Amino acid sequence: MDFVKRVFSGRKKLIVIGFLVILLGFAGFSIFAKKEKEPQLQTTPVEQGMIISSVSASGQVLSVNVMSANTQASGIVKTVYVKDGDEVKKGDKILEIDLDFQGEQKNSQAWSSYLSAKNSLESAKANQYSLQADMFGKWDTFKELAESDEYEEGSDNRNLPEFHIPEKEWLAAEAKYKNQEAVIAQAQVAINSAWLTYVQTSPTITASMDGIITSLMYVEGMSIGSLDTGSTTSNQKVATIKTEGMPIVSVNLSEIDVSQVELDQKATVTLDSIPDKTFTGKIVGVDRIGQSTSGVTQYPAIIQLDSSSEQILPNMAVTANIVIERKDNVLLVPSGVIQSQGDQSYVSVLVDGKSQSVPVEIGLSSDTQTEIVSGLNEGDLVVSGSISSAGSQQNGTSPFGGGMGGMMRMAR
């Protein structure tokens, strides 16, 4: 029994000692794990460089340097004289149409209107000659009266109706003659309008300007302007003619950004349809009245590009970055490290291995960087974040996977 008691007592001491060893091990591991869990600060040096402040806006390409070749004729396309990419001069034939009944009727009416406008012009000119002769006749009558001895300069007879009536008749004739000049000008405009209408209904469609043919939509045998095609005979587009010139885009500015945008500011433009290219340009117009839609006001701005490309087509979506201001040789930090409290800005700086908050004065900001006007020096390390040490244990768990409960089970 004494032997059993001694064995049992020795085993109990071993268990207690083992348990104490485990507790000491766990305490040491906890201290080590706690030390390992202390976050490591990530830093970024303050650097000197260039910063560009810009605003972003979206919009689309406008239809510029392009004119449509239209027709009001109807019938069947008989001959096509050009194809896409051909260079044409003003007046060159594009295509010819065999007019249907409706087309012939419209063309005849347009010709009749032109002849009527032409006759009106000739009549107005003839009437002007008569009015001119009447004006000169009345001028001669008044001139002879004014130069006679009876109505010499300073004579009281010049106050008599006999003197004033010829004068007024001459002035009235002169006014009619001058008014007829306006009638002739109006008749000239009418004849020009009638001729353009006739050209629009003509079976031969010609180029209205010099340029390159694009978007030719008709081939021989196609119907054009006929009622049975579901279209009308008004302004049927046959093709477009493109001239040389730089593309122009329109973008919409927000209420916050419009006050910063001015004429001649530089801009970079990208198109969704041309993702591998960036175009440059400048602001040539800003609408500061704006347009409101659903309570949101936008202010259109016009950007003229510095270069062109055949890939740029009207109505393509664009995104523009407009350069508001640019500075060289300034101190820069990541924008994410700037913290604000009221009107004061702060940056956390690593000093002797510890993070220290430093007040700073900031300047321009871009999407990623901010200018530091004062408060920091080049080479200072600003705290940009922190990371935990690899392999550290979270939530106080032990490497044995059971925490204190697991160790108690092992002790038993």
Strand ordering within the main sheet:
2-11-15-13-12-16
Major β-sheet annotation: 6 strands, antiparallel, barrel
Count of extended strands: 21
Put simply, the count of helices is 5
Q: Average pLDDT value?
A: 82
Overall body shape: elongated
Reading the helices and strands in chain order gives HEEEEEEHHEEEEEHEEEEEEEEEEH
Please compute the radius of gyration using only Cα atoms: 45 Å
* Named CATH topology of the largest domain: Helix Hairpins
Beta-strand content bin: 35-45%
Supply the helix-strand structural class. alpha+beta
* Helix percent band: 25-40%
Protein described:
Helix content is 33%, strand content 36%. It is α+β, with helices and mostly antiparallel strands.
Quick summary of this structure?
The protein is an alpha+beta fold and about 400 residues long. It has helices at about 1-35, 100-145, 160-200, 255-260, 405-410, and strands spanning about 40-45, 45-60, 65-70, 75-80, 85-90, 95-100, 205, 210-215, 225, 235-240, 250-255, 265-270, 275-285, 290-295, 295-305, 315-335, 340, 345-350, 355-365, 370-375, 380-385.
